[in-house]
Amino acid sequence: MNISDSERIRTVIESMGYEETEIEEEADLLGIVACSVRQKSIDRVYHRIHLWNSWKRERSLITFVSGCILPADREKFLDRFDLLFSIQEVAQLPDMIRQYGVATAASVQATRDVPDIRDEFWKVSPSYRSNIEAYVPIQNGCDKFCTFCAVPYTRGREVSRPSEHIVAEVTSLIERGFRSITLLGQNVNSYGLDRQSDEVRFSELLDRVGRATAGHNVWVYFTSPHPRDMTDDVLETIAAYPTLAKQIHLPIQSGDDEILARMNRAYTLNDYRRVVENIRGILPTATLFTDIIVGFTGETEEQFERTRIAMEEFAFSMAYIAMYSPRPGAAGSRWDDDIPPDEKKRRYHELSKTLISVAGERTAAMVGTHLPVLVTGHDRKGHLSGYSEGRLPVRIEANGTAAPGAFVDVTVTSARPLSIAGKAS
After folding, report:
1. Which residue, 86, 121, 156, sits at the end of a domain?
2. I want to staple 186 with a disulfide (CB 3.0 to 4.6 A). Which of 97, 142, 144, 161 is the partner?
């Protein structure tokens, strides 16, 4: 999501006449797309702005911050950054810079010549960082209010983007030769629920995207769905279109019902199990990714062990594991963070070992099989690299000549727990 936001911010900045520089010390305008979901990320913001403000003693410089920012962090950023704005206000950035006192010829002319970027956020066309992979936001905000999460307080309530705009952007990306497209939202499968009288549901949106991409060499992904809203019609739509990638990212967060209830996840382990059974039945080749938090307030050793057992049961191909840290504003921040840091680290490493074990079994079973791979570049040894339809990293051992963006048929010759390697068929 931060990458997607950055691509729209870049469009607005470049419309003012600014050009990107790889040398940070030479920039006249420096900004950060922040994320208050993790304290470590915010700590890095403070470090960066301290450095930038020290440069102001020697030269003129404008700094800004945007992104997912909690109110408490916004208050602290106000006297450190020159400009602070929400992502929804990005089209107003030229006016903000002019009002700050930097009325360059480029910025004044941009304000006159580019009225289309001065409308709402969705109408700002992104400046994609890649010509192979693209992110298409379909929704902003969140209505779930998980007790560990800051997103509803940083991005507000759920707002669905008009489906015709989404399909139009996807169609444009296809015409421009993009090979991987990811639909983005905090809870993508609750798409349209905020506009039930005039918008489609997520399964129908996927159907429209499937029809728009049919016959093209492209994989379409989405992230992240909520288990509570994952219905069979979504899975059946994915099964119906070859372009809708067979990969599901389904956050579990915990394998213990009591912890799930305290997290306000609104499902039980059995509920999650039924969704996974449906995924395996309707999409038998799909890889399954997840998110897990260890060390949530009050988590006992027995409750953690249930999460570890759930990791074994569901045999995830990938899991993004986080050690819990309270976020100001979220309901959980009012509870004691009573799991010691060393214990959180131990649980993190234990769960990581389990992931390596179960994921390794799945990748080992792929040796000898054939599969298409999207080439995205080269590794450090010069081999082609990319990923499978299930988003598993792939190294192509033979010295291939395929360019990034090409699909290559690969015979899998070896496997690691979280990646595979093979030769071009």
Report:
1. 121
2. 142
Tokens of 267: 């499902």
Distance CA 212, CA 198 (A): 21
Q: Which domain holds residue 142?
A: 130-217
The token duo for 152 is 């509803």
250 compared with 104, residue with greater pLDDT: 250
Please identify which residue in the block is written with the tokens 């995924």: 279
Measured at the CA of 24, the angle between CA 23 and CA 26, to 5 degrees, comes to: 75
Instruction: Look up residue 306 and give its two tokens.
Output: 């249930």
Q: In terms of domains, do 65 and 115 share one?
A: yes
Q: How many CB atoms lie within 10 A of CB 373?
A: 26
Query: CA angle, 70 as apex, 67 and 71 as ends, to 5°?
Result: 120
Q: In whole angstroms, what is the distance from residue 398 CA to residue 227 CA?
A: 40
Q: What tens digit of pLDDT does each residue of 79-132 get? A: 899 999 888 888 888 888 877 754 333 333 333 343 333 356 778 888 888 999
C-alpha 4: how far from its chain's center? 9
Q: Same structural domain for residues 354 and 392?
A: no
What CATH number has the domain bearing residue 343?
A: 3.30.750.200
Long-range CB pairs of 149-152 (<8 Å, 24+ gap) are 149/37, 149/327, 149/330, 150/36, 150/37, 150/68, 150/70, 150/327, 150/328, 150/329, 150/330, 151/37, 151/68, 151/186
Q: What percent of the chain has pLDDT over 90?
A: 70
7 sits in which H/E element: helix 2-15
State the Cα angle at 193 between 192 and 196, rounded to 5°: 80
pLDDT digits (tens, 9 = 90+) for 143-180: 999 999 888 888 888 999 999 999 999 999 999 999 99
In a domain, 237, yes or no: no
- For 278, the 3-state DSSP assignment is helix
Q: 296, 301, 275, 294: which is closest to 286 by C-alpha?
A: 275
Please report, to the nearest 10 degrees, the dihedral formed by the alpha carbons of residues 257, 258, 262, 266 taken in order: 30
274 and 314 Cβ atoms separated by less than 8 Å: no
